[in-house]
């Protein structure tokens, strides 16, 4: 069933993901959100401030998946 992603605002034909805040997003936007959250959690686990010390992880997961041939 087609839907419009609340994040990228594109019409999607794949599986919709409902976030904890109730938004409907596509799988790619969901992965981006999870990657960004992982960066904040990694910063917090090293003793830094959760937001100011966040590390950039958002694009790396997607690059890795493309490199190993996964969608």
**Rounded mean pLDDT score:** 78
Classify the helix fraction into a percent range.
Answer: 40-55%
Strand content: 5-15%
Count of folded domains? 1
Distance between the termini: 20 Å
The H-and-E topology, N to C, reads as EEEEHH
Could you say which overall geometry the principal axes of the C-alpha atoms support?
flat
Structural class: alpha+beta
Query: Main sheet: which strands, in order across?
Result: 1-2
How large is the radius of gyration?
14 Å
Q: Biggest sheet, open or closed, and with what strands and sense?
A: 2 strands, antiparallel
Question: Which terms would index this structure?
Answer:
alpha+beta; single chain; 2 helices; 71 residues
Summarize the helices and strands and which ones pair or pack.
Elements: E1 3-4, E2 11-12, E3 17-18, E4 24-25, H1 27-45, H2 58-67
Antiparallel strand pairs: 1-2, 3-4
Descriptive report:
By secondary structure, the protein is an alpha+beta fold. It has one domain (3-67). Helix content is 41%, strand content 11%. The strands form two sheets. Strands 1-2 form a two-stranded antiparallel sheet. Helix 1 crosses helix 2 (58-67). The mean pLDDT is 78.
Offer a concise description of the structure.
The chain is 41% helix and 11% strand. It is an alpha+beta fold and 71 residues long. The protein has one domain (3-67).
């Amino acid at each position: 069933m087609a839907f419009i992603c609340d994040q990228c605002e594109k019409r999607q034909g794949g599986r919709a993901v409902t976030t904890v805040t109730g938004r409907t997003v596509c799988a790619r936007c969901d992965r981006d959100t999870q990657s960004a959250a992982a960066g904040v959690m990694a910063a917090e686990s090293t003793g830094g401030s959760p937001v100011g010390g966040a590390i950039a992880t958002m694009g790396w997961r997607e690059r890795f998946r493309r490199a190993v041939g996964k969608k």
